[in-house]
Structure formats: structure tokens, C-alpha cells
Amino acid sequence: MNIIAVVMNVFQGAVLLLAAPGVVGVLRFIKARMQGRPRLVGFVVQPYRDLLKLVRRPAVRAGPTSWAFAITPIVLVTAYGSLAYMTPVFQRETLLAGDLIVVVYIFGLARFSLSLAGLDAGAPFGGLGSSREMFQHFLTEIGLILFVIALALQRDTVSLRDVVERSQTEGLALFLEHPNFILLAASLGLLILFEGGRIPIDNPATHLELTMANKAITLEFAGRDLALIEWAEMIKMTFLFVLFGDLFLPVLPLPGSILADEGWRAGGLSVLLLVGKVLALVIVLAVWELGQPKLRLRAVLIPALVAIALSVVAIIYGFLTTALPTVGAQL
Amino acid sequence: MVDLRLFVGVITVVYGLGFAVPLICWVVGYIGRPAAAGQVVPDSQDLPDKPFMGIVKLSLVFALLASLLSVVQAATSFNAPQTSVLVRSVWWDRLPELRWEARLDNLSAFFVLLAAGFSAVVAVYSFAALQASHYRKQAARIAAVFNLFAWSTLMVIIANDAFLLIAAMEIMTLAFGFLALYKHTAFQDKDAPPDENGEKEKNATLAPQVYLIVSHTSTAFLVLALLLLAIQVHSLSFDALRGAAHAVDANLASVVFVLALIGLGIRAGLTPAHFWVSLVHPASPTTTHALSLGIAIKVAVYLMFRFFFEFLQPQAWWGYAVLLVAAVTAIMNVWYAIASHDLKTALAYHSIENIGIIVVGIGIALIFCGDRDPQHAPIAQAIAALALAASLYHLLNHAVFKGLLYLGTGAIDNLTGQVVEFGKLGGLLKIFPLTSLTFLVGAVSIAGFPPFNGFVSEWLTLQAALNGLAQLKGDLAGLMVIAASLILLVGSFAMTAFCFVKIAGVVLLGKPRQPDAPWVQQWLARKKPWDVPRPMTACLVLMAALCLALGVLPGWVIYQLSGVVKTITGIDWPVPWSLTELHIALAPQAEVSLDTFSPLMVSAVTAAVVIAALRPMNRRGAVRVPPETWNGGTPYAQTTMQYTGAGLSFLLRDSISAVASSPATENDYLPSRLTLSDSEAYPQAVVEVFRERYNRLADWVVTRSERFGLYLHNRDLGRYLLYILIANVVVMVLFLLVRGLL
User: What angle do CA B147, B150, B153 make, to 5 degrees?
Assistant: First the structure.
């Protein structure tokens, strides 16, 4: 790997990290427009402004907290940030090797650390948030691992790079060749709602503590600690968009290592495609959230079970299409 | 590496000295009767008198010495050529087959390394731990029996014939049963603080009884399995069994397998028989408790490797059976762990859950070892090898992180004066910083998050299962069994994370839940954290460092484990390893490619970022620390406003009970009043389906048999004469049958 490739790999992750607040800004803007409150939310720059405002203020950590509380924002940013360096964003090569199981476990690590922080201040809302956060983690982890199993049975690998590459090279014919990818896409879509804490699982914009899950934990954070946590959540959301686009919105094959193996034209096209995909997903999510009420806390079991069922059906469908013909031939 | 015979002799002598010295001192009256109150050990909080603790330390030094010798022996004989040695021929010449044979192949060496290494750590830890006031009066006997326990564990592992195996196993059982007596003895002590409601005392009395009954049931099945095999080859030596593995009839092999699975399953605590672990293990002293749960429970897993892969020719259906049992074990016990209320019980349940995860690897390996289709051979073998490596890796990891958590619990136990209930702890991270830090490392490791070691073995297990699934694409039944166990397994991983948020969050974080407890008062008065003595912290830090090392350098460990896999199955599994990337190719021609990830690199980058970010984040002026957590102008002054463990887990418990009927509630078990047994003696907060069912079954058998007995003995002379007639006829028929006259 030459130096240009390394620089491009670092740049690729940095793009995701830096663009994340913008993506969330667009999402909030579109939602606000559609809800008829356009003046209240600035466009792309608003989350950057919010983060800057928070960074300038000192962190406030309550007396009963320990270092576990202080370290949580950094753990969150590095955990989600490492995901940005494992997944192909606009080129195939990545800085770190990783697979989908690692992704699931890194999500788990972040939730684990956030839930611990929720218990550290000794306030009841934090514990409430931790309980809900880990409950959702329980549901999401099973769903995600089943999704990974279903995908692995189709692709014979769970390596992020390889899975994405195969999806991208097949192009949109993907869904014709493997109709169960429609089920898998739906499953991942539901799981993104879980993992990102979106409506109907959780309302990221709520101000009522009793309905909060994730946000109830962040209540205790302030200043630059809060800025890091907010940024981490934005990175996670953007990563989920990119992952979905990588796996289920194949348009053109991703170029290898831009500037090292391939020219800047391919790179530019790839970046444009990336922007288009993420924008499309943002619009879909905004429209979806517009017509949804938040589910009751216990009722989130149902979408989780739906996500699991979709993956299981995808596994069975894969079995029927790939294995049965060979079994039939043997008979 | 020395001659095995010499090695066995040396460790027997050294451990024997460790066992005998306190015993002899006690017999000759040098240290007095430790259990008798006030004779030798003063009741004040001062250090106990010198000769007593001196003898305890001497005994522990012997244990440490022998353990270190065993570690060196095992490490040097790893991958060395194997020979079995006759240690001591039993002088009973009419039964020449009864002999003591030992062997130290890679599998034994791996387990000796684990057991002896861990014994050494426990010995160092006990130096300080046994000085705690609640151990003081029994310290000498705990140290002595610890020697015996460690020795017998090693002998079970290096035994190469059925006689030595069973004998050593019995010694191990008795030694552990004796250790489990300690709380019982503690409650007999007149000076001990009174038990609140007598429940603990009942449990303490029950524990050794239950343990002995359970172990002997397990040994009975094991002896039966061994004898069935030994009859076939006319030898008790394992070499003969190994040699004749191919010749054993497939049906007989299945019978032996089922018997061995039941026997070893009971000993390992696999699900229908898991009920004893959470009762017995918390009853033993924390120091040896760590050894028994970290290592001794894995002796059964060690024997599974021996039985299923070496003495028998694996069949695929065994694998499916083992896999399902293991997956059910994992999820069921983590469920009980979530419902339990104190550290020791929760960790005991987690131990069985981890045994489940370990045995999942064995199950997958059995499926693919049993697949004898030559077409599948290279890939099936590679998947079997991978699954075994995952299993062994998890075994190693479990010994490390569970050892760490147990030693940490022991430290908390000593620091807080035997308080381990979740509802009474809290905020330990600020009061006992180092113990709590290492405990947190253990919690993250067992929850299976990178960059710690639990993640690597869970990742390997999932990879083995995924590759197995991919290989079984054509076999719907197999596919469904593996997929179902995989779902259970993933559920148990997720629940473990939940459970450790509860454990670590409630115990280490927040505010102390009992502000008037002496240790909290001491902290408030001093305004300075303190911790356990140096030997204990050294052990904790060592184990925590191992957790990290096994998590970031998995390549080398897997490379070494491939040698053990070769010993178990004979599969040659070449694993190239690199420092930076974990990459395992199943086989060059395999369609299935395993994936890479770079734990070292990810960890290094993460650590660099965290360290770089810590300084600006915590700069002077960047942080304000108000004294209390505020709620819009009023502080949350009351510690009772914090979430409790039960409150944390309620959402999960309640939601799952809505889907599946709940096996564990936190209500107390109400025994039926009609029955004879005193089931009230199981007043644990967790209600276990199986324990309840076993009790019902025992009650039913006892009542019915008694009723039947009363029916027979109804004092009617005519009926008694009829019995005599029937007995005579039966004896005569038997006589004729035996003589061949009928």
C-alpha cells in the first residue's frame, strides 16, 4: 500500500466523520420543511453551529460521576469513528479490516459504554435510559446477527469489503438475481431505525424525559462532552446510511483505491453517487418519519420480531433457491 | 521439561507438603484448632497470631511452587513428542490392569497450563485474601485443601487411565466438597454475626450435600461409560481406548456418548443439570471459588474432548444434540443471571452460560468430524478445527476473565465485609479504584466487546457457526438446528451485555446504596480511596492485562491452539499468523473465506485517539464539577432514587415473559405443603424451573414409594405369606435360568 492510498483511506473515513453533522442537518431540514416549520431549522450548517456552541462550553460532570462517565464521549466517538474507517464509503479500499460481526459488536460497545454512563450520575433518568438502551440493544443485536447470517449465506463471507464489493459489482440486477435481498434490505431498514433511534422506535427530537431512551442518558452530559456524544450519534446515523447504500443501492462498481489505482474522475463520480445515495435515503427516512407516531416502549418488540422474521424468511428462501435444485438433481 | 514420572512425583510431594503441613501442625497442636472459637486466633480485628498465619502462608508457598513447576513443565512439553508413562503400578497383582498411567499431550498440557497458572495466581492472591476476618479462623484448612484441590485437578488432567482418572476425580470432589463446607462451619461459629433469616445458613449446609450427590451421580454415569468401553478393549488404559476407537460398534458408541454426555453434562452444569452450580459455588471461599469455577468446572469440558473425539468415532447427530443442549444452556443461564441479586450467584450462572458457549464449539466440531463424506473432507475438517479452536479459545478466555471477575468479587467481598448483594453496593469505582477498574475490564471482556478477549472467541464461534451453515446449505434439518442454536447463542451474547451493564453499573457506578455501611463511612471520613493489599491487586492487574493481551493478539494464540486441535482430532490445520491481522483461511480450495479484522491495529488507533482526546477534554477550566447531580434546581440527594438491579432488568424480563413464559421470576419459590422434602431450603430469589421440577420429582418418588411401602406392609399375615411364596418362586426361576436349565 503506497502513501497515496493510505492518505486516501484516511481521507475516506474523515469525509464520513466530517460530513456526518451535515447529513443530519439535511435530514432535520427536510423534516422541518415537511412539517411546516421551515424557519426554525437552518440548513446543512445548523448542526455544525450547535456542535461548535457546545464545544466552547465547559463540560459539567456531576459530583457522583467517575472516570467511566468522563471517558464515555471519547469511547463513543472512537467506536463509531472506527466504523467509518472499516466501511467502503466512496472507494473499495479501507484503512482497517473489519466484518459485519465486528460492526455489530462495536455498536454494542458504544451502547454498553453509554448505558454505564447513564448509571454513573446516580439520577433516575439515566438508569431509565440505560435499561431501555440495553433492551433495544438486545433486540437489535439478535436482528443484526440474523441479518448478517442471511447475508453471509448468500455471499459466503461477512467481510465488509467483500460483501460491499459483490453487491456493487452486481448492480441493480442484484434484486432480480436474489429476490431475497429485498427482504434483507427491509430487515436492515428496520434495524437502522432501531440502531439510529429513529421514529417509531425512539424519537430523537423528544423533550419529554419519560419517553426517552437514548436521550435520557445524554441528559447528564453538557458542554463538550455533549458535543462529542451528539457528533458520535451523527456519525452512527451517517454510517448506517452509507452501509445501506453500499449493500442495497448498487449503481456502479466502487473504484478501488482512488488516485492510487484509479483516476480522480472515477473518484469524483463515486463521491457524487455517494451524495446521491445518502440524500435519497435521507429523504426516504424523513418521509417515513413524517407519517409515523412513536411506538410504546414495549411495542418495539414487534418491529424487532418483523426484522428477525424477514431475515429468517430470507435464509429459507436462499435455501430453497440454491440448495433445492442440487438436492433435486441428486435425487 | 523433565520426565513425566519425576514431574508427577515432585508435584505430588510439594502439593502434599502444602496439604500435610497445616494438618500436622494442627494434629500436634502447634496452631491449635482453627475452628474452635477464641482458642488461638484472637477475636479482635488485629492480625492473627503469628504461627497460624505463618503456616497458612507456608502452605500457600508450596501450592505456588508446585503450580509454577507445573506451568513450566506444561509449557515446555507443548508440541513435544508424546509418550504415556506408567507412574505407579498398583501392587494388587490379581488385577494388573489397575495402574496409574499419565500422559502430557498437547490437550493435557493446555489444560495443565490453565489450571496450574490459575492456581499460582490464586495462591498469590490468597496470601492476602485469607487474612480477611471472615476467613481467619479457617485459613489453614482452606489453604491445605486448596493444595489438595489443585493437585487432584492436575492429576485428572494428566491421567491416562480410567482408574487414576476416577480416583483423582473423587479426591477433587471431596476436596471441593470440603471447601464448600466453609460457610457452614462459619455459621456454626458462635462469634459469627447472626444470620438474618437463616436462609444463608440453610444454603451453606445444603451446598456440600448437593455437591456430593451431584458429583457422584455424574461419576456413576462416567464410570458406566468408561466400563462399557473398557470391556471392549480389555484395558483401562486410555491408549488402548484411543487405539480401538475405530473398532467400537456405532450403536455402542452412541450409548457411550449419551452416558458420557449425561455424566459430563452434570459435572459441567449443562442445562437440565445446571441447578447445582449457583447453589454450591457461592458457598465456597472466594479464593478457591475462583479456581473451582474458572478451572474445575472445565475439567468436564476437557473430558468431553477426550471422550467425544478420542475414545469414540464422532457421529454427526451427536454434534446436533450437543449443540442444542449447549445453546439452551447458554441462554437459560444468562437469563437466570439477569434475575439474580448478588454478584456470586450471577457470576456462577454466567460461568455455566460460558460453558454453554464453549460446548457450542464442541458441537459444531462434532457435526463436521462426523461428516465422513470424502467430498466435503477438507472443508469439513477445517470447520471442525475452527470450531474447536473457538471452543478452546473461549475456554482460555473464560478462565481469564471469569477468574478476574471472581478474584475481583473476592476483593469486594473482603473490602465490604462480605457484602455482595447488588442492592447494598454502588459507587465502588471511586472508593476502591483499582479493584473496580479491573472488575470493569472483566465485565467488558465477558460482555464480549472489542478490544478485550471475550470478543475474539465469540467472533470465532460465530465464524465457525456461519461457515458451518454455509457448508450445510443442502441439509435443511442441519441448517435449522445450527441456525436455531445460533439465534439462542446470539441472544445469550446480547443478554450477557445487558447483565453486565446491570452488574457493573449497579456495583461500580453511581452512589453507594447503603450510605451508613462501615466502608462507605470510612471512605467519607478519609476522603481518600483505598484498596486491597498488594498481592491481591497484583493478581487482579495481571488478569486484566491478560484480558487485553488475549484480545489484541489473537493470531498467536490461535496458532498455538492449532497444535491442541491436532492432538484432539488429528486434523492438521495450518494457521499462519501475523501480528496485525487475524486472518484464518479454512483451506486453499475452500469456497468459504474467513474474514479478517485487525484487533491490534484497531485497538492501537483507538487507544491513541482516546489518550490524545483525554487531555484537551479534561483540561483545567474545561470541566465543572458540581457536588451533586441536579434535577432542575434540586439535587438528587437520596441514594434510593438510583435505579436498582431489578429495576434495570425489569424491562427485558417483563417483555420476554410476554413472548415466552418466564422461567425465572423474582418471587420466592413456594413449596407444596403435601410433600416430604424440605423444599423450603431453597430460598433463592431466582426460581428455577428445573430445580423446582427436580424437587417435585423427588417429592413424588418419595411419597409414592412410601405409599406403596405402606400398601405392601399392611400387617396381614396372609399377604406376608404370599410375599414369601413369590420370593421363593423368583429365586428358583433365577437359579434355573442361571444354570441354564430353563
Answer: 145
| pLDDT 10s digits, B624-647 | 877 777 776 677 767 777 888 878
Which A residues, 156 through 215, put their C-beta within 8 Å of a C-beta on chain B?
Answer: 156-159, 162
**Banded model confidence at residue B341, pLDDT cuts 50, 70, 90:** confident
Interface contact A71-B630, CB threshold 8 A: no
Whether A156 sits inside 8 A of B592 (CB atoms) is yes
Question: What pairs with residue B518 in β-bridges?
Answer: none
Compute, in degrees rounded to 10, the torsion defined by CA atoms A36, A41, A42, A45: -130
Q: Please give the pLDDT value at position A315.
A: 85
Give B608→chain A minimum CA distance, Å.
10
Q: B510 and A71 in contact by Cβ < 8 A?
A: no
In the numeric block, the cell 412410601 is attached to B706
The Cα B459–Cα B394 span in angstroms is 10
Which DSSP helix (H) or strand (E) runs through B624? strand B623-624
Which tens digits make up the pLDDT trace of B523-576?
Answer: 888 777 778 888 899 999 999 999 988 888 888 888 888 888 888 888 877 666
Interface of A with B in 106-125 (CB under 8 A): 106, 108-109, 111-112, 115-116, 118-124
Q: How far is Cα A298 from Cα B375, in angstroms, rounded to an integer?
A: 49
What contacts B391, CB < 8 A, 6 or more positions away? B358, B359, B360, B361, B362, B365, B461
| pTM (2 d.p.) | 0.90
The pLDDT assigned to B326 comes to: 94
Distance between CA atoms of residues B524 and B518, nearest Å? 10
So what's the pLDDT on residue A92? Answer: 85
For B292, the enclosing helix (H) or strand (E) is helix B286-294
Q: For the residues B707-717, what does the mean pLDDT come to?
A: 86
A323–B474 CB contact, under 8 Å: yes
Q: Are A138 and B498 in contact (CB under 8 A)?
A: yes
Mean pLDDT of B40-48: 41
Q: Which residues, in sequence order, are CB contacts of B662 under 8 Å at separation 6+?
A: B653, B656
Asked if B498's CB is within 8 angstroms of A135's CB, the reply is yes
- For residue B199, the model assigns a pLDDT of 60
Give yes or no for residue B601 having a pLDDT over 80. Answer: no
Contact A61, B545 (CB under 8 A): no
Q: Please name the helix (run of DSSP H) or strand (run of DSSP E) that holds residue B100, with its range, or none.
A: strand B99-103
B583 forms beta bridges with B596
A105 shares contact with chain B (CB less than 8 Å): yes
Q: Are strands B596-597 and B623-624 parallel, antiparallel or unpaired?
A: unpaired
Contact A134, B498 (CB under 8 A): yes
Rg (CA), chain A: 20
SS3 of B552-569: HCHHHHHHHHHHHHHHHH
Beta pairing partners, A258: A262
- Contact between B121 and B403 under an 8 Å Cβ cutoff? The reply is yes
- Interface predicted TM-score (ipTM) of this complex, two decimals: 0.93
Least confident range of A42-56, B78-92, B584-598: B584-598
Residues 280-299 of A with CB under 8 A from B: 297-298
Q: Which residue in A163, A144, A143, A146 sits closest to A155, CA to CA? A: A163
Could you tell me the pLDDT band of residue B590, with boundaries at 50, 70 and 90? very low
More confident: A263 or A273 = A273
Chain B hits for A135, Cβ within 8 Å: 498, 651-652, 655
Higher pLDDT: B19 or B671? It is: B19
